[in-house]
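Run: sequence + uridine-5'-diphosphate-xylopyranose -> complex structure.
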Amino acid sequence: MEIGVIGAGHVGLTTAAGLAAIGHQVCCADGPENVASLRRGEIPFFEPYLAEIVGKQLAASRLRFTTAGEAVRLGRALFICVGTPPLENGEADLSEVEQVAQVVAQEATSPRLVIQKSTVPVHTGRWLQQYLKQHGRADCEVASNPEFMREGSALEAFFHPDRIVVGAESPRAVSLLKAIYGPVISGQFTCPVHDTCSPRGAVPFVAMDLASAELVKLASNSFLATKISFINLMADLCEATGADVQRVAEAMGLDPRIGPAFLRPGIGFGGFCLPKDVAAFVKVAEKFGCDFSLLREVEKVNRERVDRFVNRIRIELGGLRARRIAAWGLAFKPNTDDLRNSPALAVVRNLVAEGAKVRAYDPQATERALAELPALQACADPYEAARNAEAILVLTDWDEFQRLDWRRLKECVSHPLVIDGRNVLSHDQLARHGFRYISIGRVSAGQVAAALTSVT
Ligand code: UDX
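>> structure
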């Protein structure tokens, strides 16, 4: 099917590449500069497998990069994947969605299914439908198909989604979307992400009304953020009582009603989605007279993580001015170079502001971080960052940090201290190599004694 994808960011480019890979003819639209570099196969951000799949689909002429007008003219179905960034007051900025609506009204040559994939406030679809009707396009129907992609595994989420959610008013729109995702729903396709990929059986395809589908994404992300802030509060209590938050989380997660995912304590959640979606959800709820102050607490707990962690470093080092600190990880999570709302970058920014000498390494995001923090000393690997360090910080849970040579690291540092902001390292392993290890929500034996005496 001829499909138009408007917007070539993390969501649009992944969607366009995925749709082409399952056999559709895809026109992906963005601004002229992005289109020019995308036509050369240059991807403006790191996402595993994306460059290979875009290159392959370009070569197979199943994927083209073009203007929004051409994508609207050619695409029978149009995915809106433009940005909906937060305004100052936390509400979603829908100006890019409005621009797409204008192009559809002007350029569509026959009925179009206009599919919202960008995360939008509830009733945006209703507004879009009315806009198109008022501009002579009553023959275009609007549907919602929220994305649940996670950066670093976005293509995995496209080819093997936990569910496909569709919001539409007409059965025709639902059946068209079911046809578009047919290969993914049935699992009958050659998965470009996994060499040998056994079909996982049918993927749940959940159809509902437009407003409900628009709410699912914000509700899901807000719930995930709530889980993270809850376990971070538990970490605070575990530090105060000498308990171990990892053991608490492990036992909580064994309850299938809770589940183990998103119960990892640390320096907080970042990225473009969770912070934005929680703020937008509070605003959406307020607009409809619902008090979501629960989510304001979720945001507050998350905001406190960075200051709490920096304070811990300040106490352990007896101050931060001129201290030599190694920062491992800058991206907001592993397998991405995305620094948006990154707690890791916020920690480093605070340390540099207080006069610390920070040597930083991230497998993907170092260059981007240098542009934001020129005072950073960028290093090519964790060992170089650890040279002469008085403390090593783990700020992003990249897998490679769990496979390092601690004997060699002991030779690098000036003081054998590791402060782990993502609880990914092992106390015993580091103790064997003479390192003192501090993590989140777990206190050392000595601190347990101090915590208990402070209570009794
Ligand atoms: C999120 C949602 O997971 C995804 O479904 C949605 O479509 C887009 O937003 P993403 O922003 O890519 O995906 O990152 P995610 O994997 O959710 O992690 C978000 C942040 O939470 C990261 O900073 C991560 O470090 C943090 N996190 C995650 C925790 O601190 N603890 C956890 O247990 C899990």
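>> summary
The first strand starts at residue 2 and ends at 6. The CA atoms of residues 270 and 341 lie 5 Å apart.
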